Structures are given as C-alpha cells and as structure tokens.
User: Fold this.
Amino acid sequence: MTEDTISFDDLGLSPELLKAVGDAGYTQPTPIQEKSIPLVLMGRDLLGCAQTGTGKTAAFSLPIIDILSQGRARARMPRALVLSPTRELAQQISENFTTYNKFHELGQAVLIGGESMPDQQRALAKDPDVIIATPGRLIDMFERGKVMLGGVKILVIDEADRMLDMGFIPDVTRIVELLPRIRQTLFFSATLGKEIRALADAFLINPKEVSVAPPASIAQGVTHTMISVPKLPKEKRAALRKVMAGEDVQSALVFCNRKKDISVLRNSLRRHGFEAEELHGDMAQHRRTETLAAYKNGDIKLLVCSDVAGRGLDIQGVSHVFNFDVPNNAESYVHRIGRTGRAGREGRAITLVTSEDAKYVDAIAKLIRVNVPIRPLSDIGNQEPEPVEERPQAAEKSEPKSDAIVHEKKESRHSTRGRRSESKNNGSEKIPARTSSGNGARPNRARDSERSVGNGRATSGDSDKVIGMGDHFPDFLREPSRPKRGGKS
Ligand code: AMP
Assistant:
C-alpha cells in the first residue's frame, strides 16, 4: 500500500462493481488489487506474485467482470477461463465471482473433477461467459465436445506453482495451445522460481510484473515454533496432543505428509477427545466439499489434512497450523503456514520435528529466512490426562524411542479437547471422560521473547519485508471472523 490512500473509486471499475465491492464490505483495495486492476483493465498480461489471502481473486475477477460485461457470450464459447490447481480453490474462486458479479449477469460454470459431469454439462449448455476449471476436467469436457475454447479472451492461471507441484503443467500447456494466441493472460503464483518464470515466459506476452509478497514469504503475525518429538508414531501423536493441550486452539489445520497417516491421526485424536475431521484427496468430492464447509463454518475445529488443504484455500480464522510431519518440500511449509495469520491476523505455526527431519528444517529456515529454534517437548506442560490406550496400528513399526522430547509453552485458555459434538460421536466411540479441570492443559505463559524474530516469528526486516496485505488493514478485518457466504454456480 502506498502512503496515499487509494480507494476502489480510483481503479477504473464500473459503478456496479464498486457497489458489489462495497456490499462485500471492502473499504479499500488491497495492494495486489491496487496494482493489478488498472493493468488488467488496460488489457495487459500480468505476472502476479501473490499468495492467497492477499485479495488476488478480486484482483483478477473484478476487472474481468468489467471487461466481459462489455460483450456477449457466444454459444459454447466462454470468454474467460480461470484454471485452478485444486477443486476447492476453483469453488472458492467461483464463490468470489458470484459475490462480485452481483450486479452483472455474467454466467459461470465450474468444471472440476469428482463432481457430476451431467450437472457441469448443463451449466455449459447455458453458454457461460466464464469457466473456472481444474485442468483435467476441462480437457475431458473439451474432448467430449462440450466446450470450445476458441473464444477465450482472458486466461487466468492461478497458483501456477501449485500446478507445477501437482504435475499439471502438461495439461495447462495443452489447454493454452487450444486458446486463441491473441488473448490476455493473468498468471499468479505464490512463488516465482526459475521453472515458474520459464512458464510465465511461455504463456505471457510482455507482462507487467506485480508482486505483493516476496517469493516464499510468510504472513506477518505468524509465530513459528518447532518442537523436538520422538519418531515412533504413537509417541509422536501423544506429543501432538500434549502440544495442542497447551494451546488456545480455536480452529486448526493439522498437516500430515502421507495420506495414510491422516485417518490414523484423526481417529487417534478423536479417541482422545479432540474434535477432529479429515481432508485429503482420496475422499469423494462431496465429502471434501462438506468437510471444508463445516470447517469454514466452525462446526469442525480440527482438520487433519494433506497438502490438498495447504494451498490456495481462503479459510478465515485459522488460529493454528500444526505440522504433524515436517513437509519435505520447504515451499509446502510456506503454503501450509499461509493458512494462518491471514489478512493481518495472528497465527501459530507449530511443527513437530523428529531426528530425521534436520535437512528439511534447514531447507525451511533457508527459504523463509527465519531461524526457528527447536524446542524440547519437555518445555511444555506435563499435565496431559491419561491417554486412552490406542489400538496398535498395523502399518506402524516399532521404532526406538527418541529421548528428544520437549515442549513449547503457552498460556492455555480453551483447548479443543472434550468439545466433540454428540452428532459426531453417535455413541460409537469411546471418549475419555473429562472434567473442565481435568483436561490436563496447564501450560505456562509464553515467553515474550518467543515473539521476536530470533525466536521464530517471521517479522519484516528491512531486506526481507513480508507483506501479506501490506500496510493495508481493511476495517472488516477488525470485526470478528464470520463464516464465508456459501453458494456456487
Ligand atoms: P484471496 O486472496 O483472493 O483469497 O482473498 C482473501 C480474502 O480477502 C477473501 O475472503 C476476500 O473476500 C477478502 N478480500 C479481498 N479483497 C478485499 C478487500 N479489498 N478488502 C477486504 N477484504 C478483501
């Protein structure tokens, strides 16, 4: 954000869009909006380096709506195409689009895997102006002759680095080859490594580069903590519970590296009285959608997930991200942690580190340019209640116990323990009886020093300024977090 306050009125948007933006509660454009909207309205190609949470969806959706509202859709020939790496992100973009499209009549279709083909074909039959799609399903529809791409005037490639990680680049390249050469392309990525730049060179013509977060930066307001824990899965799970018990967890994501560990951890947490659900790519799409909606609404407090939830999702009010496993790709750390501390709020990022994770921890420290000290588990309060005996997990081998277990400490207000809803239990699971005084968490108050850079908090030094929403702090963020509006096309 510049010193002079720029308002939405200064960006060249139509009165209808200004009204929709006002109705959405936005009072000021975010830095990415301020920089991108005028360029997109001018018809420029854009290379945007911005994380989700910076307002980038509106940065491309708002000008696209204004540009498209000046023409009309042709049969089966959408005029704008937004490519998203994940189904969840596509749905989220669609929800945003619906909000901004309130006073226009542009049609949209969301084409994502795992959802009904006939429904999507019906949406295509209405000749939508905009298609929001994951690459595989779009190609599928194209091959069935359900959509033609020769009328696309604006292409958005969102989360390009995630596309790369997920192996979608061949599909994206194929799609781009099906589009007219004369078009406007908006390319967004949270990071701009060499490969991403090479892709941008291939897809964009003389782009303007707009950056609101230096590559691989993390949001301000996130406190990073690493805790040394044993390798043995059962003990590692116990360590996680201990850490959680000492935290004021309002809403948390718990990341595992392997899908097979997600259900094990989720079941274990539930057996110990933590209200937890799971989210990963092997779930049916409707379950993914429902689970995510329940998490966003606050019906689920703890979501054990794979990296599918780590990228691109705009989930408000995530107080904690727990890395049950250190991600073995440092950029994944940035994306996982990007779920908390969003849009100016504070967040806690807590990573369990075993003796085998040293090289990954080093890679993370290098990437985020913050040296996060590894604390012993013993630093954390020791009053966890007696755990319920866990069933042995067939897949788990007995591993030697690590003696490195220590804790982090933090003032405990409420934890998520014992807050399971009855409907989730159905009486089928054994839940340990607890009393309010017996939930075991009586950790100490966090040290003040924990909030300095040297103690793990990513703050903006002179050279590595971390921006997020920049100095811009919209009024609505001072209000309590509200569930997002639902509704999709
Ligand atoms: P995004 O980065 O597009 O996922 O947006 C993150 C969140 O910021 C979404 O919940 C948007 O509704 C919200 N948002 C986008 N632009 C603004 C703005 N100018 N003022 C306030 N909130 C915004």
